[in-house]
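Q: Got a minute? One more chain.
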Amino acid sequence: MQFNVYLFAPEAREFEEVFREGQLPPEGPYEEVPVKSPAPFEARGYLLRNKRTVPPWLSFFREHCDFRNAEEIFNQSNSFVFVLRIDQRLFVLTHGQGYLALNPSLTVPGFGLRIALNAVDPQKVRSTESRNLRETATLKQLVLSRPSSLDQFEVSFNRELLYRLEGGLGRPEIGTRIRGSASCGVATRVTFEQLGDWCRGLLKVQAEKTPPSMERADWLRRVTDPKLVEHLDRLLDDALQAPAGEAEALHLSPANIREYNQVEKYRLRNAHGDIIEIDDLDIALVLSHLDELISVDEAPTAISLIGVNAEGEEVIAQSLGSAVVFETTYEGDRYLHTPEGWVYINPSLVNWVNQQLSILASPPEDYRLPDWPEDADEGKYNSEVAVKDSLTYFCLDKKLVTVEGRSRIEVCDLITRTGDLIHVKEFTHSSQAISHLVAQAEGSSALLLNDRRYREGIHKQLTGDWKKLIHLDRTSPRDHQVVLGIGAPRARRIPDSLPFLSKQSLLRAIESLSIQGFRTFVCHIPKA
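A: Always. Here it is, folded:
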């Protein structure tokens, strides 16, 4: 038998509470089906009988085809919802479209996924469904032709939320196969009389610690508990209304990083049409203007955030709430607000990212970049470094190379006499502080290897002996190191003290560039 099972929250005490409003008599379509006595548990059944619907294709073809007795053509379906109380918890088994009648606000979020993670045989995983944490959501479903381990699935569990897991069970007392997400679909041979003990077994599995073989699949978990989301949203609102200088845990992530090069300035606009223009998407700058825009009936997260190009056209538009990246802790756990909503971060993932960065991102022991003067912006820093030590550094900041079919690309900010490609970014709370640094490094390095026209464009920007650093016919990654230089106060540990998503971006870039063959590392540029 195939059961689709939901577990309801402890506050759901009455059988009728599992249903959405309007599903039960006298107005609703479901009728109660008495359970024959004696049953080994308290339970009720609910039936949606012989629901008729007109086939959608009929209305399209009816005027053009001579259907006999067309009024008698219909689809008919039946749905059944079985509710049982086990150890003061309500379990719901649905068949047909019975799940549509349930009250989702009272179901236990991720119940089925938790059962699957804890009970699937590690060598019998059949399919996964995951979504990324980037601004534009991507749903990825992977199905293998035969049962395998998680290692066979191309899922980056350190960057993707696992939504569904399917596979063979390693717990015969539960069943033979499971599909787990909000609910769990289980193939099992239990009898009606055994349903109570079977549900107790699900509760036991749910409470277990995730086995080591599945732990990394649980590194990121979307928060769907309405009460927890409400608490976290209040923390976000408080952070947005705090003084601008206290914005340490707040950052901004634009809707589409590819459109960044088109944006010349930004606008903040409230529901009444009031507009404030800002030059950069710096969180401290945004916070300094919010008081001028927020009205009594409008939350900070509802303010519109608009990117404007040089012609004054709006090229990016989103709510401020959808752009906010906010890291916080609540009752000892770490949470991250992203454009996709709230995400729980497993401490094991934080430790893993830190360990990977310490291994992959560390510069050579004697590698240093010149200090960053207190009064210098990025452009001034780059130009002054090249002027003060012209034998070691050549400034390529703002010297763009045009490649047909692509945007104009900035090669890097500084290139050294030994061929190091140094990308520089001052760490403030700008939306592009790390993401733009990473995008520039990845895009430029790929073109350097694969596009002669790009190398020719770089040649035109270099002078004298510096041209020898770029080989027109073929470039080897062994000729260059990619350096991600981050300017930050001397006392700040880089990259250790960066926000979690910034660390993720750096790690992804280093892994990507390493695959291309480049030695890549992060270098802290001390600010005076």
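A: The radius of gyration is 29 Å.
Q: Perfect, thanks.
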